[in-house]
Write a structure and sequence with these properties.
Helices cover 89% and strands 0% of the residues. It is elongated. 0% of the residues are buried. The mean pLDDT is 92.
């Protein structure tokens, strides 16, 4: 198998993991809000920081 195919496979795997991670936080969001007693504005900050960290790394 060529090196570029391995790199492409690895990048596809990373894309799938990041997609699943974003889905997981959106599904778990209501439970997180409830358990930490966050109002919608506070939850917006949490999601915003999560999104910024995704953009940086």
């Amino acid at each position: 198998m060529k090196y570029r195919h391995r790199v492409l496979g690895f990048l596809c795997l990373l894309a799938a993991i990041t997609y699943l991670d974003r889905i997981a936080i959106s599904v778990a969001g209501p439970r997180i809000q409830e358990s930490l007693q966050l109002n919608p504005q506070q939850w917006g900050w949490v999601v915003g920081i999560f999104t910024i960290s995704y953009a940086l790394f």
